[in-house]
Amino acid sequence: MEKIESSGGKSRFAEPASNSVTVNGVRLHTLDWGGDGAPIVILHATGFLGRIYRPLAERLRAIGHVYSYDQRGHGDSSAAPGGEYNWEWTMRDLEGFIATMGLSGVMAVGHSAGATAVGSLAGERPDLIARAVLLEPVIFESPTAPELGWRNPFIERTLKRKRVFDSVEAMFSNFDQKPPYDTWRKDILRDYCDFGTRATLDGKRELKCAPEVEAKFYDTTRDFDGLGRILRCTAPLLIMFGMRGYSLGAPLSGKVAQQLKNGHVIDVADAGHFLPMEKPGYAADQAIEFLSNSQSR
Questions:
Q1: Whether the Cβ atoms of residue 278 and residue 185 lie closer than 8 Å to each other
Q2: Which residues have C-beta within 8 Å of that of residue 224, sequence separation ≥ 6?
Q3: Exposed, middle or buried: residue 153 (CB in 10 Å: 0-12, 13-18, 19+)?
Q4: Alpha helix ranges (H) inside the chain
């Protein structure tokens, strides 16, 4: 993937190569961002898609060959057979993607539920994931933990969310001043509005991830022990928590730092749950430093 010059004179990489693989009966839309060296896989948060992590992917190309994909029911991937959407399938699809692509010993970067899946699979299959960065993993101590207090109102709010917009620009204007999008870097928000929607027959834009699909993942959060799996992981992990109020994992940062078997935790004071959208440069710097040390294990 070669660099191109934008109209403003700044270098941007060309679009990643788009393809697909079939995993667990689901056609996963894949992006090959290029780069030389060991494989790096980026896994997105619930409700989003791999394309909007462009700033992170472009930076990570400096240390490896970067891939991302859209999870089942997200982006340009197909719906799940039988409507199966839960956290176990998120992890199994990641396992299947790495294996189907013929990769092993990959470095991985995950965000939110994607981070939980990455850390959990690294604990179970260190042959597939050798080293990982977890950005704001969704974790909790028990199915009745106070950290899950967001769940029911969030499900209700998700099911009511606006799903069709007059245009990409209308969606951007709608989100630009609203939490949590108002803290995102503007180019990332615009990519979400552009690539996270599809054109309708009447010329409008519809969310690619239906609110009903997104809500199913939130509904099954308590059934997956991401915290226990991550704490049992022996592969090297870097875990980053935003410290602002809507961070989901921040209340457990101290516990994770004390009990993590191999790795360390960074608390980021001026970021929240959407850390890679708010501070992509900082997230990339920390990830590159940590993942680059893989050769010295």
A1: yes
A2: 86, 87, 88, 116, 120
A3: exposed
A4: 54-60, 87-100, 113-124, 151-160, 168-176, 186-195, 211-219, 226-232, 253-259, 275-278, 280-292
Q: Tell me: the pLDDT tens digits for 70-87?
A: 999 999 999 999 999 999
CA 9 – CA 18 distance, rounded (Å): 26
Q: Cα–Cα distances in Å, from 286 out to 39, 59, 161, 180, 184?
A: 18, 11, 34, 23, 19
Inform me whether the pLDDT recorded for 38 exceeds 60: yes
Handedness of CA 209, 213, 215, 217 (dihedral sign): negative
Residues 122, 236: Cα–Cα separation, whole Å: 9
Cβ contacts of residue 203 below 8 Å, gap of 6+?
A: none
Average pLDDT value for residue range 244-253: 82
- The pLDDT mean for the chain works out to 92
- Alpha helix stretches (DSSP H) within 71-125: 87-100, 113-124
Which amino acid is residue 64, in one-letter code? G
For residue 230 the two structure tokens come to 């991550």
- Report residue 250 as tokens: 């921040």
User: Sign of the CA dihedral 105, 107, 111, 112?
Assistant: positive
| DSSP secondary structure string for all residues of 140-161 | -SSTT-GGGGGHHHHHHHHHHS
Q: Can you tell me the distance from the alpha carbon of 25 to that of 229, in angstroms, rounded to the nearest whole number?
A: 25
Question: What is the side-by-side order of every strand in the sheet holding 197-199?
Answer: 164-165, 205-207, 197-199
